[in-house]
Design brief:
By secondary structure, the protein is mainly alpha-helical. Helix content is 50%, strand content 7%. The termini are far apart. S-citryldethia Coenzyme A binds next to helix 16.
Length: 432
């Protein structure tokens, strides 16, 4: 392995175990324990895997201490450009470099060609309760894509992966929009092949029969940026779930459905809904931000400052910075303000001065401002995590591809520290 750089010694039971040390491109180091159990019957204990590299990856780099995030080496700030282009970023994450003009237009054409759902899949919506959780629908529909696209259950080359990726990235929009329409009791609005990715999504969400929704350029740009900022984040909970399922040689649809389910959790992608609910409760209840900060610090109070803190970032999440500016930009264009944005800003100002947050290095994360931007676009709160999933899908596909095509890819199967009963005999019922 080219990144072998050093060695480490483990002293245990009076013997010294020599371990290889690998160094990543940015100087991060990792101790190789891959033969620790086989050769020495030992495991390492790391229940949240926060100290464990589960793969080599070249997709995304994060430096949590410095608040750095790069996609294929490109700093995230450079994607906040006049016309942000989510599909270009999706292509780069999956295929390893920025596409040229021809590659991008070919991929765009594939997305347009595959934007419709099989009518059999569309009909499934009618069987669902109108108040079904959107993330339950999304994970089910993505899994069910395996029923209608059996030709993509086995992906053995880049061409077939591109075909599956295009169908997933295109259809996830349609599934999300149909989910919203079903919940609102509105007729499905089919995708319009003349529209670009984000404009088409907003069209399916908000147009009415004979009344096309007018997507402003600012809105389309803001949505491209939101999806770009959510597109990948190295080995986060949902990306790791995708890798674990992929490692069993499960298909891409099954693996991405697992990613949706992991993202649903309120500590992960579900946090953007919790942030909005928190801000709305503060606004409606007329609570003082100062009291909310006090509650967030109080261990006896279940209140948590959602949108704050991060497992990796011990600095300001660079995505939150960009989203905060994007909120200002969009509200300026729309010539309106949102009182929830003022509350969010005040909470941030108080927390960043408070030793509880400063000492624990708790800063705003991607979820803190994203909901305010989505709300400004008219996206309902219960669809926020679905929006996160749409953005994150190319990242999951890129992580799946790396895992699936990795040389010697083995099934991911951790060990444990057994703390249960010692050997125990069965007790007949009459003796219990
Ligand atoms: C995402 O991994 C990724 O990359 C995820 C993500 C991605 O793009 O994929 O970035 C997306 O999931 C962003 C995070 C969204 N979640 C939230 O906003 C939920 C609120 N945040 C927390 O629950 C928490 O900060 C986590 C889950 C994000 C991180 O948890 P850690 O690293 O395990 O930290 P911890 O729970 O051990 O907390 C350390 C201390 C504790 O206090 P003490 O025990 O030291 O006294 O910080 C406190 C926690 O109580 N703390 C908070 C807090 N977050 C942590 N206290 C109040 N409010 C908070 N939000």
């Amino acid at each position: 392995m080219s990144d072998l750089s050093d060695s480490a010694k483990l002293l245990i039971d009076g013997k010294t175990i020599d371990l290889n040390v690998y160094t990543g491109v940015e100087g991060e180091r990792s101790i190789d324990v891959t033969s620790l159990f086989k050769d020495h019957g030992l495991t390492t204990y790391d229940p949240s895997l926060g100290n464990t590299a589960i793969c080599r990856s070249s997709i995304t780099y994060i430096d949590g201490e410095r608040g750095v995030l790069r996609y294929r080496g490109i700093p995230i700030e450079q994607f906040d450009r006049p016309k942000p282009n989510y599909i270009e970023v999706a292509w780069a994450l999956i295929f390893g470099r920025l596409p040229d003009d021809e590659e991008l237009s070919q991929f765009r054409e594939m997305l347009t060609r595959h934007e419709l759902l099989h009518e059999g899949l569309s009909n499934q919506f009618m069987a669902l309760p109108v108040d079904a959780p959107p993330m339950a629908i999304l994970s089910a529909m993505i899994s069910m894509m395996a029923c209608y696209h059996k030709e993509f259950l086995l992906l053995e080359d880049e061409k077939s992966l591109m075909g599956a990726a295009a169908r997933l990235i295109s259809k996830i929009r349609t599934i999300a929009a149909f989910t919203h329409r079903r919940a609102m009791g509105l007729p499905f609005i089919y995708p319009d092949p003349s529209l670009r990715y984000c404009a088409n999504f907003l069209h399916m969400m908000f147009s009415l029969p004979y009344k096309q929704f007018d997507v402003s350029e600012e809105m389309e740009d803001a949505l491209n940026l939101v999806f770009i900022l959510h597109a990948d984040h190295e080995q986060n909970c949902s990306a790791s779930a995708v890798r674990v399922v992929c490692s069993a040689q499960a298909n891409l649809f099954a693996s991405c459905s697992a990613g949706v389910n992991a993202l649903w959790g309120p500590l992960h992608g579900g946090a953007n809904v919790k942030v909005m609910e928190m801000l709305e409760a503060i606004y409606r209840g007329g609570y003082r931000p100062e009291d909310c900060i006090a509650a967030a610090k109080d261990k006896n109070d279940s209140f948590r400052l959602y949108g704050f803190g991060h497992r990796v970032y011990r600095n300001y999440d660079p995505r939150a910075k960009i989203l905060k500016t994007a909120c200002d930009r969009l509200f300026k264009t729309l010539k309106r303000n949102d009182p929830l944005l003022d509350i969010a800003r005040k909470l941030e100002e108080l927390a960043l001065k408070d030793p509880y947050f400063v000492d624990r290095k708790l800063y705003p994360n991607v979820d803190f401002y994203s909901g305010i931007l989505l709300r400004a676009m008219g996206i309902p709160t219960d669809m926020f995590t679905v929006m996160f999933a749409i953005g994150r899908l190319p990242g999951w596909i890129a992580q799946w591809k790396e895992q699936h095509f990795a040389e010697g890819g083995k099934i991911i199967r951790p060990r444990q520290l057994y703390v249960g009963n010692p050997k125990t005999d069965y007790i007949e019922m009459e003796k219990r």
